[in-house]
Amino acid sequence: MRKLWLFALLWFPFPTRAQTGLNDQWIAFNRASAPNSNLQCFKPNNVSVSGGNLAITTKSESATCSSIDLPFAAYHYTSGWVSMRNFNFLYGTVEFRAKFGGGMNTGAWPVVWMEDASCQASDPTGTDDSCTGQEIDIAEILHSDFKHVNQQIHVDNLSHNDGCNASVTDTSQNFHIYQLLWSAGSLVFKIDGTTSCTIIGKYVPNTSMYLKIDNFVGKYGGPVNDGSLPWTTLVDYVKLTQGSTVIFEDDFDPMDANQPTKAKSAAPSSNNRSDNTLGVKIFWRWLTWGTIVCLMTGLAIFVSKFRGSRNNRRKGS
């Protein structure tokens, strides 16, 4: 009976508390990058969720990939790129806590940014020239200078590129909280609660946008130091609010009490695919494992009694 219990524990482990993969709010790209940053393949296997963080890992390894921009070819690096799958929004506050992968003079180019929703459907396969090209870089590390954060816009065919380069403690060694307060004609960027950049103008994007997180290799990251790889970007949580209402949130560990809690009053837009069924999933998960354990226990008792009955018959004979 003890052997059967050991077998059950090894082959039917109890559910763990931590989320182990992206939920369906996100999509991990599987494609080559784009002509302006073409040193890596983006692979879903380079994206994971562990320890209450979204992890994007960049590696020095050979891979082949293509996109609608680029033909099938071999590359020397792989990395991860995550995007909101369907959700997009107009105005509100974006907040996330992150530590960027790479380090000073490594060639890493991590960025958390937003693009207009016209790009969202084609983005997993490559840049679509039909996109209107409205871009907001919330936190971008340029030239592998992890002690400065670029916060900038690129709109109207690059006719407006306003931005700031905020000083901060090393973003590859320290987590920081980044915020973007987006309203009509106004962008206010904050790092750890302190305003780091303000952009005011009629050209501030005024169409729905979606969030993207990735780590490019080289180009605007500078020369690549292969010895510094792998790099891992960690994102603790992502939260979007409009007024007092949370419209999108993922803390990448729904059972962790130290993470921000999801607001019960959230009123997401029609295209928000947030994980509102988490409680139901957890209930059925426990019910399933409970049933398995009960069946294994019943089987163990049955086998034990069957063996006892056979031994008694043998003694009687």
Describe the overall structure.
This protein is an alpha+beta fold and 317 residues long. It folds into two domains: 256 residues, Jelly Rolls; 36 residues. The strands form two sheets. Strands 2, 3, 4, 5, 6, 8, 13, 14, 15, 17 and 18 form an eleven-stranded mixed β-sheet that branches. The chain contains two helices and 18 strands.
SSE topology sketch:
Layout: H1 2-11, E1 26-28, E2 31-34, E3 37-42, E4 47-50, E5 53-65, E6 73-79, E7 81-84, E8 92-99, E9 108-116, E10 135-140, E11 148-154, E12 163-167, E13 176-183, E14 186-191, E15 194-200, E16 209-217, E17 231-242, E18 245-250, H2 278-316
Parallel strand pairs: 3-6
Antiparallel strand pairs: 1-7, 2-3, 4-5, 5-6, 5-17, 7-16, 8-13, 8-17, 9-10, 9-16, 10-11, 11-12, 13-14, 14-15, 17-18
Tell me, what's the shape?
Answer: globular
First-residue to last-residue Cα separation: 25 Å
Radius of gyration in whole Å, from Cα? 25 Å
CATH architecture of the largest domain: Sandwich
Count of discrete structural domains: 2
Structural class estimated from helices and strands: alpha+beta
What order do the SSEs take from the amino end to the carboxyl end, as H and E?
HEEEEEEEEEEEEEEEEEEH
Determine the fraction of residues in helical runs and give it as a percent range.
10-25%
What is the residue-averaged pLDDT?
A: 82
- The CATH topology of the largest domain turns out to be Jelly Rolls
**Poorly predicted runs of 5 or more residues:** 1-19, 256-286
Number of helices: 2
The count of strands amounts to 18
* Binned strand content: 35-45%
**Largest sheet report:** 11 strands, mixed
Per CATH, the class of the largest domain reads: Mainly Beta
